[in-house]
Amino acid sequence: MSDPELDLTLPAVTASLPSFQTAFDQVCTRAGLAAEIRNDLQVVLDEVCSNVFKHAYATPGGMLRLIVCRLPAAIEMTFIDQGQAFDPLSLPAPDLTLPLDERPLGGLGIHLVRQMTDQQSYRHSTAEGNRLSLTKFVT
User: Fold this and answer.
1) What whole-number distance in Å separates Cα of residue 118 and Cα of residue 138?
2) Quick check: helix, strand or coil at residue 130?
3) CB 128 within 8 A of CB 55
4) Residues contacting 25, CB < 8 A, separation 6+
5) What's the pLDDT tens digit per position in 60-69?
6) Residues in contact with 129: Cβ distance below 8 Å, sequence separation at least 6, in sequence order
7) Other beta carbons less than 10 A from residue 81's beta carbon
8) Mean pLDDT confidence for 87-102
9) 73: left (phi > 0), else alpha (psi -120 to 50), else beta?
10) How far is the C-alpha of 123 from the C-alpha of 132, rounded, in Å?
11) Average pLDDT of the residues in 13-25
């Protein structure tokens, strides 16, 4: 992994989203990313953050760490939280014929994230917690 362009830890609450968005947008600007890639990655950021804010912690007080690295031909976003173990990548694509309230948690969101990134990985450890890494190839 190269040196991070961004390493930001904030409370895992909706009020933190604008700070994550602003800091990430600055990384995108420095990297000179095309508008389409930048917009896709902002959607990914919003989706992952929103899911952590809503579902990672049983009680308030948790933190979310975002690490962004600029690789030679890619941007890698890593999200780390100490919330309950939950592998979003294990969820199948949603059955969109089901009513919204009957769809499994996270199915649509992670399906969207998979479509907008090129590589995804998840791991959980006692020391680090949940670690979701997403890579988008860029030129």
Assistant:
1) 10
2) strand
3) no
4) 38, 42
5) 789 999 999 9
6) 80, 81, 82, 83, 85
7) 22
8) 75
9) alpha
10) 7
11) 96
